[in-house]
Amino acid sequence: MPSTPFFLVALLALAAGCAGTPTAGERQARADLDDVRGRYRPDEARPELPALAPDAPLADWLRYAMLNDPRVEAAFHAWAGTVERITIARSRPDPALTLEADIAGAVETLMPGLMLPLPAPRKLAAAAEVATAEAEAAYHAFEAEVLRTAEATRSAYVRLHFLEDALRVQREALALLGDVETLARQQVGAGRGTLQDVLRAEIEREQLHTQIANLEDSRGVLQARFRAALGHDPEDESVPLPAGFEPGAPPLPAEELLALASEHNPGLRRMAAEVRRGQALLALAHAGRVPDVTLGLEADVKASPVMWRPMASVTLPIWRDRIAAEIRAAQAETRSAEARLTAEEIDLAAGLAALLYLYRESARNEELYGVTLLPKARQSLAVARSGYAAGRSSFLDVIDAERQLLAFELASVEARTQRELSLISLAMTIAGVAPEGAPLVPTPVENRP
To answer: Which end of the chain has fewer CB atoms within 10 angstroms, the N or the C?
Structure first.
C-alpha cells in the first residue's frame, strides 16, 4: 500500500513541528522575563543610558549603574536560562522512528514505525514545577544583584560627599591653627609666651597636614569604588563624579519595614522559592513509583495488504530502595530549605533592629554635636584664645580647645555619614525596595522607606 510510507512521514513531520502546552508558571515566568528584557536589554542590547554630569540627580546615577553593571547582566542571563529550562522540563520525550526488516537473500518484510514515550501522570508537571521554582529563585538572585549595585553606588555617593565635608573641616582647623600659631609667636615676641608654645602649634599643624593628605589620598579609592559601581574601569577618569547631594528620607516604623521586607526582600523570596522547589522535588520523587508507558505502531509495507503491528512497553519501577532514597532526599532538601528560610527571617529581623539602632544613634549624635557640643566647643576655643592673649590661660588650654572642636566637627560628619548609610541599608538590604527605574518586575509598593 503506497500511501502508508507517506502516512508515516506525515506523522513524523507533525511530531517534529509540535509544541507543548506551557504551564501557568511557565507563562508567568516568560511574561516577567519579557517585561524585564524590554527595559533592561531590548533587542538584546543595552538601552540608552542616562547622560551623566556632575549635577545629575541621584536617580540617574543609580539607573546608570543598574543598567551598566556586568554583574547585574550576568545574573539576568542566568535567570533567562532557568526560564528556558522550564520548557525543557515540562516537554514530553521525543518520539522515536523505528525500522525493522527481515532479510533472507531479499527483503522479506520492511516495517517502519513510530514509538511515543508517555511519562507517568504528574511527572512532567512536577518537573516543570521544580524548574519554575528554580527560575523564581534565579530571578530573586538577579533582583538581589540589582539592589546590591544600587546600594554600592549610593553608598559610594554618600562617602564621597562626606569625605569632602571631612576635608573642609580639617582645612578649617588648619587655618584656625595657623591663627593660633601666629598668636603664639606674638606672645613670644611680647615676652608672655615661650618657644615651646610655637613648637606645639607647629606639631599640631604638621599632624593636620598629614591627616589632610591621607584624606585626599583616600578620595581616589572612593572615586574608584564609585566608578566600579557604575560598571566602569575604576581608573577611567572620563567618568564624571557627582557634585551635589540628595539625603535620604527618614525610615518607616519598624513594623512597616518588617512587613515590607517579608514581601519584597529578595533573600527571603529566594529562600521561599527554594522551599517550593523542594516540595516539587518531593512530588517528582513520588511520581517515580508510577510506571512510564511507551506506545508504538509499525507497518509491514511489503505485505499485501499492509499489516499493522501495535506495540507497547511499560517501565518497571522495581528498585524501591532507589525510589525511597529519592523521596527521603527530597524531604531532606525541603526541610533544609525551610530551615534556611526561618534562619533568614531571624537574621532579617536582627539586621533590622541593628540598623534602626544605628540610625537612631547617628541621629542622636548628629543632634548632640550640631545643636549642643559644637557651639560650646567654639565658645570654649574663643575663651581659651582670649585668655591666652591676655595671659590668663596657657597655650595648652588653646590646643586642647582646638583639638576638641576638631574632634566634634569630625564626629558630626561621621554621624551624618552613618545616618545616610543606615538609611540605604534599611531601604535596600532589609526592605528590598529598589530605586525608581530599576529593571525589575513591577511590584506595587505603597510606602517607600
So the answer is: N
